[in-house]
UniProtKB/TrEMBL annotation:
Source organism (scientific name): Parasediminibacterium paludis
Source taxon at top rank: Bacteria
InterPro entries listed in its UniProt record: Conjug_transposon_TraK
Transmembrane segments: 15-35
Keywords for this protein: Membrane, Transmembrane, Transmembrane helix
The gene coding this protein: traK
Protein name as it appears in the record: Conjugative transposon protein TraK
Length: 205
């Protein structure tokens, strides 16, 4: 009788240990499965698929701080192209200037008002002049905020009889603002000034 009770006690102890091992193993497997699920969801959320020409292309999301230099330089480039690209058409000029003013503060508006008062845009229309700009390089300091920049560009002023090439150097600061359709990079140019704008050469057409 005593031996039978001892066997039952041993069996019960073995069953208890086995059950405990199974419970711990299930808990470990469940935790691992949850961890892998969260990791998979995070990885899926960091992927963006772009449909281009009927093909799905995979893109990856990244922190804004990783893209600040690229986005800031593109913002500066877009602003200068909108502000300085002119054609002898009042609607084209107004459309470009409007786009540019969404990307900068009142310093750009003051520059536009000064040029308008001096009759610059009226002369462009009256003289059938086109103006193009190419941003050659942009230096950017992201170590301090707002971010200081200096933009180096080349202007081409195309007249009926000649083409004038000019150098353009501007500087200013960038601060963060909310993104929108009119300002997709979420920057605003402040204290924008022109440092240098001189003729390099004139070519007859």
């Amino acid at each position: 009788m005593f031996k039978k009770m001892q066997n039952i006690d041993t069996s019960f102890r073995h069953i208890r240990i086995f059950t405990l091992v199974v419970v711990i193993a299930c808990a470990i497997i469940s935790c691992f499965a949850i961890f892998k699920s969260f990791r998979l969801v995070y990885e899926m959320q960091s992927k963006v698929y772009i449909l281009a020409n009927g093909k799905a292309l995979e893109a990856y999301a990244s922190d804004r701080k990783d893209n600040i230099p690229v986005e800031a330089k593109d913002h500066i480039k877009n602003f200068h192209q909108y502000f300085f690209t002119l054609d002898p058409d009042e609607k084209v000029i107004q459309a470009n200037i409007t786009k540019a003013l969404y990307l900068a503060d009142g310093s750009a508006k003051r520059e536009y008002d000064n040029l308008k008062e001096q009759g610059y845009y009226a002369n462009v229309i009256a003289g059938n002049i086109s103006q193009e700009i190419k941003v050659d390089s942009t230096s950017l300091n992201i170590d301090s905020y707002p971010f200081y920049f200096r933009c180096y560009a080349t202007q081409h002023i195309i007249r009926t009889t000649s083409t004038v090439t000019r150098s353009l150097i501007t500087e200013g600061y960038l601060r963060n603002v909310g993104r929108s359709d009119n300002n997709p990079h979420g920057f605003l140019i402040e204290r924008w000034t022109t440092i240098d704008n001189k003729d390099l050469k004139t070519e007859n057409r």
